[in-house]
Recover the amino acids of this structure.
């Protein structure tokens, strides 16, 4: 259960961005992932958001819910992959693209490979725990039976500012 007084102290100073529906490109979908990250902040969760697109349509959108659900697997990417699988009626998400505001961790990177996504686009690299090029690269394993297309750094600045501001505020609370 989230303490309502604690949530008020974490009021998000960032505003959602409303990209034009006319340009459904990588930037459009990443702004939607950014908006999901703001939703996470507003629920006192680490502000990471994810959106999955297939054929120009959004088939999933989620943000971190680890603390509120008390589930260590409730990362934005895992939740979005589950939604997308339900939306298409298959665990194989062939042709789909995941947009996420921070490089996926080992668990999430593995899940992106296992789900057979076509692409992963992430904003902020994670040299400590990122596993799509940061700390290591699961996608680069030569024996893997599936490989993703990876795009790094799209909207890195606003997504990094959001993460840094959140953790600075959290450190002040401690």
């Amino acid at each position: 259960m989230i303490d309502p007084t604690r949530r008020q102290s974490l009021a998000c100073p960032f505003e959602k961005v409303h990209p034009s529906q006319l340009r459904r490109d990588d930037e459009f979908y990443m702004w939607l992932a950014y908006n999901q990250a703001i939703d996470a902040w507003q629920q006192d969760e680490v502000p990471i958001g994810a959106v999955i697109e297939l054929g120009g349509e959004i088939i999933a959108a989620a943000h971190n819910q680890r603390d509120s659900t008390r589930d260590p697997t409730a990362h934005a990417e895992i939740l979005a992959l589950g939604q997308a699988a339900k939306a298409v009626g298959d665990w194989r998400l062939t042709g789909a693209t995941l947009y996420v505001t921070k490089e996926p961790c080992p668990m999430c990177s593995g899940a992106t490979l296992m789900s057979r996504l076509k692409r992963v686009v992430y904003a902020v690299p994670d040299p400590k725990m990122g596993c799509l090029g940061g700390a290591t690269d699961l996608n680069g394993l030569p024996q893997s039976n599936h490989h993703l297309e990876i795009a790094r750094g799209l909207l890195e600045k606003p997504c990094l500012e959001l993460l840094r501001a959140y953790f600075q505020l959290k450190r002040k609370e401690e």
Summary: The chain has a mean pLDDT of 92. Residues 7 and 44 are 6 Å apart (CA to CA). The beta strands are 49-54, 57-63, 97-102, 119-124, 149-152. DSSP finds six helices and five strands in the chain.
